[in-house]
Design brief:
Layout lengths: L10 E4 L6 E2 L2 E2 L3 H11 L3 E5 L6 H10 L9 E3 H12 L4 E5 L2 H9 L3 E2 L6 E4 L7 H12 L3 E4 L5 E4 L2 E4 L1 H12 L4 E2 L5 H10 L7 E5 L2 H11 L2 E5 L18 E3 L13 H12 L1
Parallel strand pairs: 1-4, 1-13, 4-5, 6-7, 6-8, 8-9, 9-12, 13-14, 14-15
Antiparallel strand pairs: 2-3, 10-11
């Protein structure tokens, strides 16, 4: 592959579970792909709908798996949610169902976590959620607090299989209160736009890589980003036919993404047109 440093840059938004790793195991070729991006000076950002861990925690997990990572290279739905709330109501209050990643992001953005009379009820991921917390959230939303979801994923992958995700918890509260949550995580344009701006890229320069059609690919399609669906996660090639939208390309894993995706969209179109003419 020729050196592309003299060409306009692109940048990658990379989903994590099912793209970079499965649980505690690195997906084959992920480290090679990221090493290639670093050697070419191509920026990337790890994008996750999991709000449990702080960006520092996520960076450490990646490093232990053999992928050097800094907290600044991580963008979580918890961060997106906290920034969104701070932009709408600075120095507000929130009742939180979730773990440290969510509360830390809120604190960092000037929010106070409370048990009573909050401005927002924020629902994130968590392994310690109990029904008492859900009852509390239902009462607070019924009394006027706005319901915010870090994401609407109905399931969350684990080493043992799947468990109920944020979307499943939110659905209970919506059903009980008759009020709909606003979701900030993928595929919401809120998170997708924040992540692009964090890399200081244009829409044409941004490439989203993920293993799910209804979050990663849908979010990219809605924002006008190029999209890559990798089959190393939970989606099969046959599943694609179930959706009206399609990824730009399908690859078995990160390391199978073709070289033409390392240059901007307009140049890629010109190359493909020349190759078929």
């Amino acid at each position: 592959m020729q050196n592309t440093t003299d060409k306009p840059k692109v940048g990658f938004l990379l989903d994590m579970d099912g793209v970079i790793y499965h649980g505690k195991k690195l997906i084959n070729g992920s480290d090679k792909f990221l090493a290639k991006l670093r050697s070419l000076g191509i920026p990337y950002l790890f994008l996750t709908n999991n709000s449990q861990r702080t960006r520092r925690d996520v960076a450490l997990k990646l490093t232990r798996l053999g992928i050097p990572a800094q907290p600044e290279e991580i963008f979580t739905c918890a961060m997106a949610t906290a920034r969104f709330l701070a932009s709408k109501k600075p120095n507000g209050t929130a009742f939180v169902i979730g773990e440290n990643g969510m509360t830390a992001a809120l604190h960092h953005n000037g929010y106070t976590v409370v048990d009573d009379d909050p401005d927002f009820v924020v629902i994130g991921e968590g392994r310690t959620i109990n029904f008492e917390c859900i009852e509390k959230a239902v009462r607070l939303v019924s009394n006027g607090a706005s319901l915010i979801a870090t994401n609407l994923d109905t399931v969350c992958p684990t080493d043992q299989g799947i468990r109920p995700g944020c979307g499943a918890i939110v659905a209970m509260i919506e059903s009980a209160t008759g009020k709909k949550a606003f979701s900030v995580g993928k595929p919401s344009p809120v998170m997708m736009r924040m992540a692009r701006k964090a890399m200081m890229l244009s829409t044409d320069q941004t490439i989203m890589v993920g293993d799910t059609m209804y979050t990663d690919v849908l979010g990219a399609v809605q924002m006008g980003y190029r999209s890559v669906l990798v089959l190393s996660g939970q989606t099969t090639r046959e599943d694609i036919a179930n959706y009206a939208y399609k990824p730009d390309i399908v690859a078995d894993c990160l390391n199978d993404i073709p070289d033409e995706f390392f240059i901007p969209k307009q140049q890629t179109a010109q190359i493909l047109q020349s190759a078929t003419s």
